[in-house]
Amino acid sequence: xxxxxxxxxxAVWACALLLLIVAAPAPVGAQQVNPTASAVKERQLLQxxxxxxxxxxxxxxxxxxxxxPQGREWREFHNVTLRWIGGVAIIGMLxxxxxxxxxxxxxxxxxxxxxxxxxxxNTYERFVHWMTATCFIILAISGLNITFGRPLLLPLIGFExxxxxSLWAKYAHNYLSFPFTIGVVLILLMWIGxxxxxxxxxxxxxxxGGIVGHDHPPAYRFNAGQKAIYWIxxxxxxxxxxxxxxxxxxxxxxxxxxxxxAQIVHSIVAVLFVAAMIAHIYxxxxxxxxxxxxxxxxxxxxxxAREHHSLWLDEQMARTGPNDxxxxxxxxxxx
Amino acid sequence: xxxxxxxxDADRCIECNACVTACKNEHEVPWxxxxxxxxxxxxxxxxxxxxxxxxxxCTDAPCAAVCPVNCFYTTADxxxxxxxxxCIGCGYCFxxxxxxxxxxxxxxxxxxxxxxxxxTYCAGGPExxxxxxxxxxxxxxxxxxxKLPLCAEMCSTKSLLAGDGExxxxxxxxxxxxxxxxxxxxxxxTAYRETIES
Lengths: 335, 198
Description:
Chain B: It comes from Bradyrhizobium daqingense. Chain B: One of its GO terms (molecular function) is 4 iron, 4 sulfur cluster binding. Chain B: Residues 4-34, 78-107 form the 4Fe-4S ferredoxin-type domain. The structure holds two protein chains of two kinds. Chain A is mostly helical. Chain A has helices spanning 2-23, 25-31, 42-49, 71-104, 123-152, 154-157, 159-191, 199-206, 224-248, 256-284, 292-296, 302-308, 310-319, 329-334; strands spanning 52-53, 65-67, 117-119, 299-301. In chain A, the strands form two sheets. A two-stranded antiparallel sheet of chain A has the order 1-2. A two-stranded antiparallel ribbon of chain A has the order 3-4. In chain A, helix 12 crosses helix 13 (310-319). The longest helix of chain A is centred in the first third of the chain and has 34 residues, at 71-104. Chain A starts with a helix and ends with a helix. Chain B is of the alpha+beta class. Chain B is 26% helix and 13% strand. In chain B, the strands form three sheets. Chain B has a two-stranded antiparallel sheet with strand order 1-6.
C-alpha cells in the first residue's frame, strides 16, 4: 500500500510538473499578446491592391491614399519609354522625309500649269484648318518641351530662362487646347463626307498613291493618304483632347493612377500625331508642287486637280466649270 | 553627413495629429495644404493602424526624376528640396510620388495649380538659411539651426522618428526586440529600397 501511495504521489507530482510545463507559456503569452498578429501589413496591402488607402481627418480626403508605388513605373515610362517612342517617331519621320526628298524630290506637276484654277477649300475651311494647325504647332512645341526640354533645352538656356519659358508654354498648352479641340470637331464635321474609305482608295493604295508611286491613280476630293491624315487628326485629336482634359481637371474624373494612364495615352498619341503631321506638312509644302495653294489661296491649278484628284475634278466640272483664273463668287458661295 | 529619414512606428501612433498641427504651425502652411497627414488603415476594425506620412525624401526621388524643369535638388543630408522659383506647377511630381507628398495651393483647373509645396524636412529651400524669403516660401529651417523636424520632435508617443536613417532604424529595431512585435517601417521599401528586418 505504501508503494502504491508513493506511486500515486509521484504520479501527481509528475502530472503537476507536466501541467506546469505545458501551462507555463500560457500566462506569459497572455501578458505578451502580439498586437501585430492581426495588424495590417504594408507588404500584404501593397500586394493586394498595389496601393494603401485609409481614413484621414483633414478635409483633403484624397490624401487618404497613403502609398502607391506605381509612380515608379510611370516615371520609367515618362523618362525612358516615352523619350524613345517620341525620339524614334519624330527623328525617324524626319529622316525618312529627308531621304525621300533627296531621292524622289518634289512631286512635280507633270502637265505643267494650265493657268486655270478651281476652288478646293473655301475661306471657312481654310480658317478652320489654320486655326487647328496654329494651335497644333504651339501645342506640339510646348508639349515636346515638357518631355524633351529638360535634357535638350535646359542645358542651353539655364534654369531660370527654361523655367520661365516652360511656364508660358504650359499656359499656352492648356488654353490653346480649347480652340484646338473646336478645330478638330469642326474638321470632323466639315470633311467627313469626303473621307469615308471606299473602293477607289484600295486602288489608290495598290498603286502607291501619287507620292510613292509614279503615276496618278484616280481619287475623289480626298485620296487615301489624305483620308488617313483626316482620321489621324480626328481620332488622334480626340484622344489627346480627352486625355488632356483629364489632366487639366485633376480628380474630377479619376485619381492619380488614372492621371498616370491619361498622361501615357496623351503623350504616346501626341508624339505619333506630331510625326504624322510632319509628313503632312512635308507633302503640303516642299513635297508636292501646287499642293500648298489648296490651303494657301484655296484655289488649285486645274492640271494639279486632274493629276491628283481626277474624279473630284470631274465632279466639280460637271457642277460649275473651272474658274478661268478669276475667282467666281458664285462658286465660292456654292462650296 | 547623415542620411536623414522619417520612420513612423505604426504600433505607437495614436492618431493625435500633433505632427500635422506642429507642421502647419511651424511653417505657417497655407489653408488647404497639408505637408503631413495621418492615415488610419482599417479604421475601427481589428488590426487598425495609423501612419503619419509626409514626403519621405526618397533615395533617387521620383519627383526629381520626372520634373520637366529640374527644380528639385538633394541636400548633403539627403533631404529632397525644390525651388518654387523654378516650379511651373505642372503636377508631374504628384503623378510620380508614391506618398502623395506634393501639394498645390489651388484646385488646379486649367493647370493653374500654383507652385508646388511639400515637406522640407524642416530644411527650408534654396534661399539663404533662415532668411525671410526662405521662411515665406518654404517655412522654417530648423535643420540649419541644428534641430530636427518639429513633427517628430512633437510626437507624444515618439512614434514618428526623424534623424539619421541608421540611428532611427537602430532605435526602431531595439523597440521591436524589446516589445516583441512591429508592423515594420512603413514606406521604407518604396522610398529607400530597403527596409528594417524585424
